[in-house]
Amino acid sequence: MKIKKAILTGGGRATRLHPITTTINKHLLPLANKPMIFHAIEKAVEAGIEEIFINTNPGEKDLENNIGDGGHWGIKIKFFEQTGGPQGIAHVVNEAKQFIGDDPFMFYLSDNIILGSIKPMFEDFENGNFDCMLALSEVPDPQRFGVPIFDENNKLIDVLEKPVNPQNNFAVTGIYLYGPKLFFETFEKIEKSDRGEYEISSIHSHFLKNNKNVGYKEITGWWKDTGKIEDMLIANRLLLEEMPESDFPNHGTLESGVKISGKVHIGLGSRVDSKVVLNGPVIIGENCVLENCEIGPNTTIGTGCEIRQAVIKDSIVLDNTFVDAPLVIKESLIGKNVKIIKKTTTDGGSMIVGDKTIIEI
C-alpha cells in the first residue's frame, strides 16, 4: 500500500510569531534561507510522494505564488482554501477529501522541522498493514501537544490532546500516515473539543478505541514544532549545521582581507568589503552589501540586505533589511524592509514600532 499523496498545512495566522507573521505567511518564513514549507515538501518527495495538496487562508495567494505547481520538485501541487474559518487540523484534512479520494495519504504539519528522513516511517507503514501510523518525539513540554497513552505492556491505547498532567514526555509530532477511507469515515463520528476545534487526537483516539491498527515510530533524530521564535532560531541553526559543505558556494564579490571561518555561502551579486568577518555556518542572500561588520555563526541574511558596523549572531534577517549601527544583535528574527540606523545627533531617536514588537536595548 504505497502512499503517493500528501496534505500539507499552509493556513493559520501564527499569532505567536507576531509581528512578523502579520505580513508574511508563517510557512514562507525562511529557515536556512529557504521557505519553511520547502523543507516539508522535500521530505515528502524523498519519501515517494507524487501529489501534494496544501490548504491556504481564504483569498491568500502568497503560497501558490512562491511554491508553484510542483514542477520544481518533479511532482504535482494543488492548493485549496480552508472554508468556514479555523476549526482544527482534523478539519483541514477533511477539507481535502475530494483530492485524496480512497487513497492512502500522509498529513504533514509544514511548520514541523525534522532532521533525517521520513522514508523509514513509510516503509514500516507499508510493510505492517497499519490503518494509521504516528510519529512520536520526546519533548520537555508534552502538555503543548497530543500525548500518546500506553498500557503496562507499552501498547498504544489512546491519544490525549494537550493534557494538563501528561502521562509521559512523548508528543505526537505533525507527521501522520493513513490508510484508505478510514480518516474521513471517522471524522463524521467525532465532535468538536472544548476549544471548538476538530482535534486530530480525537481521530486517533477513536481509531484506538475501535481496535484499528495504529502504529507509531519514534523520531530519534531531531524534531521541532516552530511555533515560537526561539524554536525557529534553533531550527535555523540545526539545519545550517546539517547542510553539507557543497551547499555553501561563494558567488559574490569579496575584497581582499575578508575573514571567513566555517561554512559560508554568499549569493550572486553580493559584495563583501575587506573589514567583514564571517563565522560559519552563514548564508548571505543575493545582492547584499556587507561593510565593516561581523556575521555569524548560525545566521542567515536575506536577499537585498545591507549590513554595516553591526555584529549579528544566531539570527534570521529577512529580505531588504538595512542595518547601519554599531550594535550586537543576537538570537533575533528581523523582518523584511526593516531599517536599524544610528542617530547622528544627541536629541533622541525616533521609532516606528508595530504591535507585539520586542526591542531590547
Description:
- With 361 residues, the protein is an alpha/beta fold.
- The chain folds into 2 domains: 5-241, Alpha-Beta Complex (Spore Coat Polysaccharide Biosynthesis Protein SpsA, Chain A); 245-341, Hexapeptide repeat proteins (UDP N-Acetylglucosamine Acyltransferase, domain 1).
- It contains 8 helices and 29 strands.
- It has helices at residues 36-46, 62-67, 89-95, 97-100, 119-128, 182-187, 200-209, 229-242, and strands spanning 5-8, 30-31, 34-35, 51-56, 76-81, 105-108, 112-114, 132-138, 146-150, 156-161, 170-178, 214-218, 223-225, 253-254, 259-261, 264-266, 271-272, 277-279, 282-284, 289-291, 294-295, 299-301, 306-308, 311-313, 316-317, 322-324, 328-330, 333-334, 339-341.
- The strands form 7 sheets. A 7-stranded mixed sheet has the order 5-4-1-6-11-8-12, with helices on both faces. A 6-stranded parallel sheet has the order 14-17-20-23-26-29, with no helix packed on it. It has a 5-stranded parallel sheet with strand order 15-18-21-24-27, with no helix packed on it.
- A hairpin with a 5-residue loop joins strand 9 and strand 10.
- The radius of gyration is 22 Å and the shape is elongated.
- The relative contact order is 0.12.
- The mean pLDDT is 91.
